[in-house]
């Protein structure tokens, strides 16, 4: 899975899992696409705004996705060492625990299957959006006499009224659109693989606690070492979550904020009927919002299950020294490391529902304003 993520990331020049990563020609081309988008979108909005101020909302829809892509690229390049380190840790972790017996191999395989399922699901969502928008644009071009565009910017000096100018603009739109889509997908894959391991950490803890309880019941000599191993495992889990929070801090914040704004703008465009691809784009925006929040909720659930599993240790069968060590780990497990949006709001489905509720309130207000104007 890591190889697949690195391959997809390399397509946009951002193989940040490589500890020797350097900005290359592909990275420069992607950055150029971003610059082209912002410059041409700015000039287009400036020229059209006086005649049609609603065009600003249309252009603002994809700005959110572009900002997400920029944040993922900058965060990835800035955290290359940490990302490559986490990738190596995960590979070493799987190699280490697959030698510990069938039970550990089972939870490792289940962990891989969970993450792989998430990757395929997100991949299908992106593929549906990419092919859907491009095919819909092509279909409308062939079946109507109107000039339909993939994105919302025009190139200064290129006359779209001519066949050459229109096709050239459409080609530039497609290249920029695909570069952005692959960049967003690559950033999401790192997020899925890294934070998708929290359930694996929980499953491994369950096996460790089971081994400790069996050893304590038999008064085995390795009881203390098994308890220390659990304490170290919990410390590693907490540190892992903190490092993931550091890597994805700005990415998560930008993802949630811009997704909400893009959804509002796109819903308004759906009312006005000015952009054929709006239906697919709003679907992707909602998926991006809830994908991150669902992963955040999964992490919260694992934190609670870590706490519960530690309480499943038969402390009454341990000696006094180990019982005192239990106090330390129980206290630490009561303050888990959470993934937060902007360091304030917890990344959870509840937060996504609150955002959706706010979006609905704004949307009904917009409908009311439109009806009054009509």
TrEMBL record:
- Tell me yes or no: is Transmembrane helix among this UniProt entry's keywords: yes
Q: Which family does it belong to?
A: Belongs to the insect chemoreceptor superfamily. Heteromeric odorant receptor channel (TC 1.A.69) family.
Query: What GO terms fall under cellular component here?
Result: plasma membrane
Q: Can you say where in the cell this protein is located?
A: Cell membrane
Q: Which GO terms describe its biological process?
A: signal transduction
Q: What is this protein called?
A: Odorant receptor
Instruction: List membrane-spanning regions.
Output: 25-50, 124-144, 164-195, 247-271, 277-295
UniProt entry keywords in alphabetical sequence: Cell membrane, Membrane, Olfaction, Receptor, Sensory transduction, Transducer, Transmembrane, Transmembrane helix
Task: Give the chief site where it resides.
Answer: membrane
Q: Name one GO molecular function term.
A: odorant binding
Give one Pfam family, short name only. 7tm_6
Membrane topology term reads:
Multi-pass membrane protein
The superkingdom listed in its UniProt entry is: Eukaryota
Q: Which InterPro entries match?
A: 7tm6_olfct_rcpt (IPR004117)
């Amino acid at each position: 899975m890591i190889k697949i993520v690195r391959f997809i990331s390399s397509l946009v020049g951002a193989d940040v899992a490589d500890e020797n990563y350097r900005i290359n020609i592909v990275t420069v081309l992607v950055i150029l696409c971003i610059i082209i988008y912002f410059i041409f979108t700015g000039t287009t909005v400036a020229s059209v705004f006086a005649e049609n101020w609603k065009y600003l909302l249309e252009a603002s829809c994809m700005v959110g996705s572009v900002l997400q892509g920029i944040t993922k690229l900058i965060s990835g390049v800035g955290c290359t060492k940490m990302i490559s380190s986490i990738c190596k840790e995960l590979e070493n972790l799987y190699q280490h625990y697959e030698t510990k017996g069938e039970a550990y191999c089972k939870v490792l395989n289940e962990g891989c299957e969970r993450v792989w399922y998430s990757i395929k699901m997100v991949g299908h969502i992106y593929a549906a959006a990419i092919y859907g928008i491009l095919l819909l644009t092509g279909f409308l071009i062939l079946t109507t006499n109107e000039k339909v565009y993939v994105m919302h910017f025009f190139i200064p000096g290129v006359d779209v009224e001519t066949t050459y100018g229109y096709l050239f603009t459409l080609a530039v739109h497609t290249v920029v659109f695909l570069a952005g889509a692959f960049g967003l997908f690559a950033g999401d894959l790192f997020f899925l693989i890294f934070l998708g391991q929290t359930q694996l950490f929980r499953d491994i803890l369950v096996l460790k606690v089971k081994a400790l309880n069996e050893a304590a019941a038999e008064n085995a000599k390795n009881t203390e070492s098994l308890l220390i191993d659990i304490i170290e495992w919990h410390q590693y889990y907490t540190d892992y979550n903190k490092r993931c929070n550091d890597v994805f801090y700005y990415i998560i914040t930008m993802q949630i904020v811009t997704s909400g704004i893009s959804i509002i703008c796109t819903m308004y465009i759906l009312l006005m009927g000015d952009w054929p691809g709006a239906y697919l784009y709003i679907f992707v925006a909602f998926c991006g919002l809830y994908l991150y929040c669902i992963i955040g909720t999964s992490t919260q659930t694992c934190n609670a299950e870590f706490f519960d599993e530690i309480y499943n240790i038969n402390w009454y069968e341990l000696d006094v020294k180990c019982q005192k060590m239990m106090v330390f780990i129980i206290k630490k497990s009561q303050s888990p490391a959470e993934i937060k949006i902007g360091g304030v709001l917890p990344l959870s489905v509840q937060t996504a529902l609150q955002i959706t509720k706010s979006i609905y309130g704004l949307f009904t207000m917009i409908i009311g304003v439109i009806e009054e104007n009509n």
